[in-house]
TrEMBL record:
The lineage of its organism: Bacteria, Pseudomonadati, Pseudomonadota, Alphaproteobacteria, Rhodobacterales. Coiled coil: none annotated. Pfam families: Glyoxalase (PF00903). It comes from Kangsaoukella pontilimi. Residues 7-132, 153-271 form the VOC domain. Keywords: Dioxygenase, Oxidoreductase. This is Ring-cleaving dioxygenase. The keyword Oxidoreductase applies. One of its GO terms (molecular function) is dioxygenase activity. The keyword Oxidoreductase applies.
Length: 309
């Protein structure tokens, strides 16, 4: 069993508009845009990162906004919902705020003793705010959401699978422990990790596979301290029979990827070097930053990419 993985690092999804995606996360949810860059493999598409003040591992939601992309089809073999941690008594305030911003079909429920506010993003992305006690992560309040409401980072991610068995065993191998189960949902937590330490598996027998598109999660990334720990994880996964990519330099972290038995794409990302490598912390996310291999495209990309504030 691995001990290097410390919880979630980031979650990456697809969108249909950079402008509406940016407004949703910064204006409505109050997160900070910590990086404005482009997709390594498709430089005419943004890669936008939202999180706390510095983009701490376990706080960062990232998006590839492909203009006018068709919506994804929910189903199995995907991360079906991403949940954020907020102060325990703030859900009523959040419901009022989301309603004022035009969010419809808000729902509330309780899972494993925690109250949740369920809602969708502009592309049908499924989210939840979970009232959490004792989450001491410092929130970003620069976009006008008060400290007693502001998002602290991720709480968890929900994997929707046709069969939980092999993926549950994988999570246990990665250091997660089963902590609860009710109905068709099993909860796993990694001990001694960051606060974004929870994965829920929801088993949906007979439900068709998801079709990826705008609003779909592309992959979820798990955090390791550094490249040495990442290489240990990679070797262990290879020894177990997983097909794992070589280490890829993503400028702000190093990454490896592999596909899980349930169909979800996992990444293992380093906490180093972080988002302040190419701009001062006070100005994160303001300028368009380009990977070195795309630097020669700057003039064209600045004319082509949808302007966002």
């Amino acid at each position: 069993m691995l001990s290097q993985i410390k919880g979630l690092h980031h979650v990456t999804s697809l969108a249909s508009s950079a402008k509406s995606n940016n407004a949703f996360f910064t204006d409505m949810l109050g997160l900070r845009r910590v990086k404005k860059t482009v997709n390594f493999d498709a430089p005419d598409v943004y890669h936008l990162y939202y999180g706390d003040e510095t983009g701490s591992p376990g706080s960062v939601m990232t998006y590839f906004p492909f203009p006018n992309a068709a919506r994804g089809r929910p189903g199995t073999g995907e991360v079906g919902r991403t949940s954020f941690s907020v102060p325990k008594d703030s859900l009523k305030g959040w419901a009022d705020r989301l309603t004022a911003y035009g969010v419809r079909d808000l729902k509330t429920d309780t899972r494993f003793g925690e109250d949740r506010l369920l809602f969708n993003g502009p592309d049908g992305d499924a989210f939840a705010l979970i009232g959490t006690e004792g989450d001491e992560r410092a929130p970003w309040t620069g976009n006008g959401v008060s400290e007693d409401m502001a998002i602290r980072g991720f709480h968890s991610a929900d994997m929707r699978l046709q069969d939980a068995g092999a993926s549950a065993e994988l999570l246990k191998f990665m250091g997660y422990e089963e902590t609860d189960r009710k109905g068709n949902v099993i909860r796993f937590r990694v001990p001694d990790g960051n606060e974004a330490n929870t994965i829920d598996i929801e088993t949906l027998h007979g439900v068709n596979w998801a079709g990826q598109g705008a609003g779909s999660v592309h992959h979820i990334a798990f955090a390791v301290e550094n490249r040495a720990r990442q290489l240990e994880v990679r070797e262990a996964l290879l020894d177990t029979g997983y097909q794992v990519t070589p280490v890829i330099d993503r400028d702000y972290f190093w990454a490896i990827y592999f596909r899980t038995p349930g169909g979800v794409l996992f990444e293992v990302a380093t906490n180093e070097p972080g988002f302040a490598t190419d701009e001062d912390t006070a100005h994160l996310g303001e300028a368009l930053k380009l990977p070195s291999q795309h630097a020669h495209l700057r003039d064209r990309l600045e004319r082509y990419l949808e302007p966002i504030e």
